[in-house]
Fold this protein.
Amino acid sequence: MKFVTPSRLLVSLLVVAILVLAVGTTGLWMAGRVAKRLDAVNGGLASLQVAVEDNKKNIQDQQHGMLERLNEQSHVLNGIWLEQRLLSPRDLGNRRLDVRLFVIRDHLSQAGDPIVFIGDSITESASLPSSICGRPVVNAGIGGASVQSYPQIASELLEEMKASLVVIALGTNDASKAMPPNFREQYMQLVHLMQQHAAKIVLAGPPPLGNGHLRTYFNEDTLHRISGLIRDIAAENHFEYVDLETALGADPATIDGVHLWAGGYEPWRTAMSEAIERSLSCATR
C-alpha cells in the first residue's frame, strides 16, 4: 500500500484549485458574453419595434391621405352627377337647374318672412297655398334633388334667406337603392343648414309608392326606413313631423307610381299645412 506524501497531496490540491478557478473564470467569461449578446438582441428588438411603429404610422398617414383624396374626388363626382341629372333640353340651351334656381331666388326676394318648402319633384310639382298662418309660401322644390344633393344647392340658393319656417320634404330620390350608409349624417347636415336660415323646422317623410311604372326604380323597404329615420330625427329635435305614409295611405293617387296627381296632393297639402300650423301655433282648423 502506497502512501501519498504531503508534498504530492499539496500539488494535487493546487492543481484541482487551478482547474476550479479556470472553470469558474471561463463560466464568468461565457456568462458575460451571453449577457452582451442578450443586450444586443434586446436592443435589436427595441429598434425593430420602433421601426414597426414608424412604418405603422406611415401606413396610417398614407391611408388617411388616400381617404381625403377619395372624399375630394367623390365630392367632384357628386357635383358632376347632380349637374348631369338636372339637365333638361327644354330650357332653350340653359341648364334646368339654373333656370329653377333663378325662379326660386326671385320668389324668395319677393316674400318677407316666408314659409319655404324644400324638396324634390313631388314638392316642385305641388300647387301650394299662397300663404299659411298669414305668411307667404315659397316652393323651393327641385326635381331630382335628394338629401345628398340639396345642401350643395341650398348653401348658395338660401345664403341670405331668413324664413319663419322651412319644410324639408326630401328622401324619395335617396331610396332608389339600398339605404345610404351616411344618410342620417347628410340629413342632419341639411337640418343644421336650414336652422341657420329659419326660426322653425318641419320634417316630412317621403310619401309611399303607388301603382305605376316608376315604382320599380325605388326600394320600398329603403323608403320605409328613411321615413322612420326622419321621424326619429324630428322627435329628437322636437320638430313637427309630417307622416305622409299615414296621410296618403297604402295606395296613394299617383301618375306613375311616384309623382302625385290631384287626388294625392289633397291629403299631402292637408298634412303639410296642419304640421306647419302646429309648429307656428296658429291652427285654424
In short: The longest helix spans residues 6-85. The longest strand covers residues 135-141. Residues 96-280 form a domain with the Rossmann fold fold (CATH 3.40.50.1110).
